[in-house]
Specification:
Layout: E1 3-6, H1 10-19, E2 24-30, H2 31-36, H3 38-44, E3 52-56, H4 65-77, E4 84-90, H5 92-104, E5 110-115, H6 118-124, E6 129-134, E7 137-144, E8 149-152, H7 162-179, H8 181-187, H9 192-195, H10 198-214, H11 229-240, H12 248-266, H13 271-284, H14 294-303, E9 311-318, E10 321-328, H15 330-338
Parallel strand pairs: 1-8, 2-3, 2-4, 4-5
Antiparallel strand pairs: 6-7, 9-10
The structure holds nicotinamide-adenine-dinucleotide.
Nicotinamide-adenine-dinucleotide (NAD) is lined by residues 30, 32-33, 36-37, 58-60, 63, 90-94, 96, 116-117, 119-120, 123-124, 127, 129, 139, 156, 159-160, 164, 167, 248.
């Protein structure tokens, strides 16, 4: 795993970068982080005052090969060499895409992530997955490539909308479910303010790191991180076809709840977990009123890259006990809609 530096470790972070003796440093930002986050970065690290920057458009629709080409062109124009450093300053779209662009430019330029959304802090920037969307398939092109370091500072969260903040809480909820009863009992009662604290962010990243370290290439236990995501991704994709597209976390909280119904039926999981998840959803996501049918999500479930002819899910048998690659029949899926 890469080195993670937190608020308070700025001197160590800069010493680490200086020890690499880079020829040049370039910061990749998007339209929003250019305005909101780059000035903060330069304030926290005055030695970055004169670094060059590349600005890309923001948003999931721009997580594309066309924008990667734009980044590569700018890297050429900025004379980025194998001995340069790219700093990805932004949310998960930017860290995924910047990591991909850097790791493929001139056969690989070092990059580090400074995530500026809660989702990117606790999830996207940890774990070494880079990528872009292609042919309508999310994260279709990409690589496993670890950043040389990550710097986490919740100061960047101050300009994020509450909807975007809430979006990041769902991966923290998921991490707690995978960790222990103690973790879940704490997280299910967090206020939004608590989710944003450096200690809680650190704890959440540690859970993901612990899992990723055991299975970097995602062939086994790492798939437990997909809990809630098989149905959640399908709901997210379907929502893009409607007038009320959901953010990733909003879809995943629905997916977590729905998958628990299936787990109750197949694995005899205690319904208490689902009921507690519904309480969390009602407390934090009271505004989500999104409905879907089997027909709405089935096409996406069947093309989900994690599946072949059957639908495989990572399902929670109990807290901290995830059964990966559980085969779910279409009949079982149909049945789950009756109680939804
Ligand atoms: N690599 C992984 O392991 C992994 C894991 C989870 C998610 N992801 C990816 O992460 C992406 C979603 O990330 P996201 O939720 O961070 O979305 P995002 O990167 O699109 O950011 C959301 C919006 O917030 C803006 N923004 C970012 N930081 C800001 C700040 N501090 N203040 C104000 N605005 C700010 C962005 O410009 C964007 O408009 C998806 O593409 C997903 O596939 C990757």
């Amino acid at each position: 795993m890469n080195n993670i530096f937190y608020t308070g470790q700025e001197v160590d972070f800069i010493s680490f970068i200086e020890s690499k003796k880079y020829e040049s440093i370039c910061v990749l930002v998007d339209a929003k982080t250019n305005g909101f986050c780059l000035p903060i970065l330069k304030n926290v690290f005055p030695s970055f005052e004169n670094v060059s920057s590349i600005v890309m458009p923001d948003g999931e629709v721009n997580k594309s090969i066309e924008i990667v080409q734009l980044i590569w062109s700018e890297m050429l124009a900025n004379s980025i060499s194998r001995n340069s450093l790219i700093i990805n300053l932004g949310g998960g779209v930017l860290t995924d895409m910047g990591g991909f662009a850097a790791s493929t430019f001139k056969r690989g330029v070092d990059f580090l992530n400074i995530p500026t959304t809660l989702l990117a802090m606790v999830d996207a920037s940890a774990g070494g997955k880079t990528g872009i969307n292609f042919g309508g398939v999310k994260n279709c092109i990409g690589s496993f490539q670890t950043s040389i370091a990550t710097y986490i500072n919740p100061i960047f969260l101050n300009t994020l909308s509450s909807r975007q903040l809430l979006n990041g809480t769902v991966e923290m909820i998921k991490h707690a479910l995978l960790k222990s009863d103690v973790a879940w009992d704490a997280v299910k009662n967090y206020s939004l303010h608590e989710f944003m604290s450096i200690d809680k962010i650190k704890q959440s990243i540690a859970i993901k790191q612990f899992i990723v370290e055991q299975d970097f290439n995602d062939n086994g236990i790492r798939q437990s991180l997909n809990v809630g995501h098989t149905i959640g991704h399908a709901i997210e994709s379907y929502s893009y076809q409607t007038n009320t597209p959901l953010l990733h976390g909003e879809a995943i909280i629905l997916g977590l709840i729905h998958e628990q119904l299936i787990a109750e039926s197949i694995l005899n999981t205690d319904s208490k977990i689902r009921k507690e998840l519904i309480d969390v959803k009602e407390r934090l996501f009271a505004n989500i009123n999104f409905t879907y049918t089997l027909n709405n999500i089935l096409p996406y479930l069947l093309q989900d890259k994690k599946n072949s002819s059957t639908i495989n899910m990572s399902l929670l048998a109990s807290i901290a006990n995830c059964k990966i690659q559980t085969v779910v029949s279409i009949d079982e899926l149909k049945k789950s809609f009756i109680n939804l």
